[in-house]
């Protein structure tokens, strides 16, 4: 397949973030700012944009030096490379583990994370150059590991079609993890990519109570809409994984909630479930506790005790959760794994498969910074 002939989903065919039309529209409709290059200490900052469609959100458009992030060798993550075209996320999930990364930009991990979104507008072009290098190892690249690639900003900037195309054209497998129903726009493109490379799709759906979902994930699509996206992907032949995580003590860990969740996931056509208990890193912890104090003050003392010494739920709680959820997973034939034991085995499998299927040497010429370094 010649990927450069797939013009129907070319990201430049719609609202191109770098086009003159978009620049004029953004300036007239929203009063686009041209901030000094040293704003937030970022090099490559082009402008900051506010638009009526995204009330209260500012997009800071930057030119990235690299698209690929190398995951440290010591990490237990099941992949070696990631791409994060956005930093910050308008999904505004109270528990989001990535909140603390905004502190590297001298922004706070609360409202700034939700409302000050960094957009690497040249990601597709930079990525295409990186994966075209002769020594690129063609290892799987993970999308959605830090902030969501299909958050609402993607509807404006359309970076993902170019990213998918660049990876597929250069024989690179990819995985996509999202809460965004905008994924449906790119399902035909991902299905074409799947003809040539391994493509994994995962949908994150943690809450199956509409009222709770709207208060704890106020910027996300509804659970019903995400389940419909799972169905759409499954209908195209994808074995979709649903990330039932985080499971939150006394909020989403009842038998009734878990049973309803797994039933809905099965009916949507998913192939498996990965689950995991809530973990609260610094940055997310404070924001989550503030939400608890507003919405469920009766639970705040319990959570303070549970997460007093660690970002992770206790081993006892995780063991208890496994005993509760595993029989339900078996009932619905959605055998996946707990997040605790998922990464190590999958990364080992990936590395062995890559070594067996390719004679290419390791991508020594590709030396992007660790994931925490943004640009």
From TrEMBL:
<keyword id="KW-0408">Iron</keyword>
<dbReference type="GO" id="GO:0046872">
    <property type="term" value="F:metal ion binding"/>
</dbReference>
<feature type="domain" description="Radical SAM core">
    <location>
        <begin position="75"/>
        <end position="316"/>
    </location>
</feature>
<dbReference type="GO" id="GO:0003824">
    <property type="term" value="F:catalytic activity"/>
</dbReference>
<keyword id="KW-0411">Iron-sulfur</keyword>
<protein>
    <submittedName>
        <fullName>Rv2578c family radical SAM protein</fullName>
    </submittedName>
</protein>
<feature type="region of interest" description="Disordered">
    <location>
        <begin position="1"/>
        <end position="34"/>
    </location>
</feature>
<dbReference type="InterPro" id="IPR006638">
    <property type="entry name" value="Elp3/MiaA/NifB-like_rSAM"/>
</dbReference>
<dbReference type="InterPro" id="IPR058240">
    <property type="entry name" value="rSAM_sf"/>
</dbReference>
<keyword id="KW-0479">Metal-binding</keyword>
<dbReference type="InterPro" id="IPR007197">
    <property type="entry name" value="rSAM"/>
</dbReference>
<dbReference type="GO" id="GO:0051536">
    <property type="term" value="F:iron-sulfur cluster binding"/>
</dbReference>
<feature type="compositionally biased region" description="Polar residues">
    <location>
        <begin position="1"/>
        <end position="10"/>
    </location>
</feature>
<dbReference type="InterPro" id="IPR040086">
    <property type="entry name" value="MJ0683-like"/>
</dbReference>
<dbReference type="Pfam" id="PF04055">
    <property type="entry name" value="Radical_SAM"/>
</dbReference>
């Amino acid at each position: 397949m010649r990927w450069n002939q797939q013009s129907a989903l070319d990201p430049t065919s719609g609202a191109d973030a770098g086009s003159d039309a978009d620049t004029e529209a953004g300036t007239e409709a929203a009063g686009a700012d041209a901030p000094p290059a040293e704003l937030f200490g970022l090099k490559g900052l082009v402008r900051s944009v506010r638009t009526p469609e995204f009330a209260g959100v500012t997009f800071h458009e930057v030119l990235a030096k690299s698209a690929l992030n190398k995951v440290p060798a010591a990490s237990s993550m099941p992949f070696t490379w990631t791409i994060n075209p956005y930093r910050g996320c308008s999904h505004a999930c109270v528990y989001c583990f990535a909140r603390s990364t905004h502190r590297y930009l001298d922004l706070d991990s609360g409202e700034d994370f939700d409302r000050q979104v960094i957009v690497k507008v040249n990601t597709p072009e930079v990525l295409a150059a990186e994966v075209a290098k002769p020594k690129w190892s063609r290892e799987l690249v993970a999308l959605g590991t830090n902030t969501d690639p299909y958050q609402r900003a993607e509807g404006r900037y359309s970076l993902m079609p170019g990213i998918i195309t660049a990876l597929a054209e250069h024989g690179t497998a990819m995985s996509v993890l999202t809460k965004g129903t905008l994924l449906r726009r790119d399902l035909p493109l991902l299905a074409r990519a799947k003809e040539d490379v391994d493509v994994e799709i995962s949908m994150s759906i943690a809450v199956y109570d509409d009222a709770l979902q709207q208060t704890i994930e106020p910027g996300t699509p509804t659970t019903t809409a995400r389940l419909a996206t799972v169905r759409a992907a499954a209908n195209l032949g994808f074995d979709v994984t649903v990330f039932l995580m985080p499971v939150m003590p006394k909020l989403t860990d009842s038998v009734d909630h878990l049973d309803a969740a797994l039933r809905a996931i099965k009916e949507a056509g998913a192939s498996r479930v990965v689950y995991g208990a809530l973990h609260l890193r610094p940055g997310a912890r404070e924001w989550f506790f503030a939400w608890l104090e507003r919405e469920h003050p009766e639970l705040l003392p319990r959570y303070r005790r549970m997460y007093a010494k660690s970002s992770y739920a206790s081993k006892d709680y995780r063991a208890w959760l496994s005993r509760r959820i595993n029989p339900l997973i078996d009932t619905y034939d959605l055998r996946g794994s707990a997040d605790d034991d998922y990464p190590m085995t999958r990364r080992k499998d990936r590395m062995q498969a890559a070594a067996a299927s390719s004679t290419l040497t390791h991508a020594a010429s590709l030396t992007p910074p660790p994931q925490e370094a943004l640009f």
